[in-house]
Amino acid sequence: MNTYRISKRKALIVAFIIICTVILGSIIWSLLLQDETSDTFNPVDQNELTENDDKELLSKEVKEDNIVTGDKVLEKYLEIKNQEYAFLVATNAFLEQDKEELVNWDEILYIKYILSKQDQGVVENIYTINGRLVPLAFINYNHVLDDTCLFQGFSLPYYEARYGFIKDSESSIYGDNIEDIFPLIQSKKENIFTIYEESSFLEKLIYNNEGTLLGYAYIEQ
């Protein structure tokens, strides 16, 4: 009888030790998993840092597409006015306007198109507020880019200008009849170029191929 009690006590002690060992092991395993998780780099963050090795500077400036009001667009223009930044605007009225009809307007010299991601030899098409499919184009205010077309980043929400700014009113593309700074004037020319404060615009950033911020682009929504 005493032998049975002793054996039972030993069995209980062994069982208790096993249970404690399992619990302790579980705690240690959980701590190890937490350490591994904290050291794991988020692949999404890695993609946001750079599209390739020569664009590391993008990590400080790249952001998701941003919707802003027209008054914020005008505020941004005043903020960067006369600084070396391009300021591109595409109002809905301008997008729907037949560009050939602008031949006598100063703005015709400052139109910039966006090339398609699928075919960089073709201009991107977008739908306007009114549902019309039109080429994606902007008027380049402030400092003028020496590009007729801009490229789109494949994995990041930005545009790329590869030729920088024109200098001293001399453009390698347009010749010497274009100004290197084109001011934004709210002239209300048939409302084609007017930025209304209550309107909404999609904001995108513009970089060169070295990852330096060159300006801002706004598409009316």
Question: Can you characterise this structure?
Answer:
The protein has one domain. 28% of the residues lie in helices and 23% in strands. The chain has helices at residues 2-39, 43-49, 70-80, 92-96, and strands at residues 66-69, 86-90, 111-114, 125-127, 133-135, 137-143, 149-152, 158-160, 181-182, 200-207, 213-220. The chain has four helices and eleven strands; from the N terminus they run H-H-E-H-E-H-E-E-E-E-E-E-E-E-E. The model is unreliable at 1-6, 10-16 and 27-63 (pLDDT under 50). Strand 7 (149-152) and strand 8 form a beta hairpin. The N and C termini lie far apart (89 Å).
What class do helices, strands and sheet pairing give? alpha+beta
What is the succession of H and E elements? HHEHEHEEEEEEEEE
Tell me the strand order in the biggest sheet: 2-6-3-7-8-10-11
Major sheet size, sense and barrel closure: 7 strands, mixed, barrel
Task: Report Rg.
Answer: 30 Å
Distance between the termini: 89 Å
- Shape annotation: globular
Helix content: 25-40%
Q: Count the DSSP helices.
A: 4
**Strand residue content:** 15-25%
Keywords: Membrane, Transmembrane, Transmembrane helix
Transmembrane segments: 12-32
Protein name: WG repeat protein
SSE layout and pairings?
Elements: H1 2-39, H2 43-49, E1 66-69, H3 70-80, E2 86-90, H4 92-96, E3 111-114, E4 125-127, E5 133-135, E6 137-143, E7 149-152, E8 158-160, E9 181-182, E10 200-207, E11 213-220
Parallel strand pairs: 2-11, 3-7, 8-10
Antiparallel strand pairs: 1-10, 2-6, 3-6, 4-5, 6-9, 7-8, 10-11
Organism: Mobilisporobacter senegalensis
Protein name: WG repeat protein
Keywords: Membrane, Transmembrane, Transmembrane helix
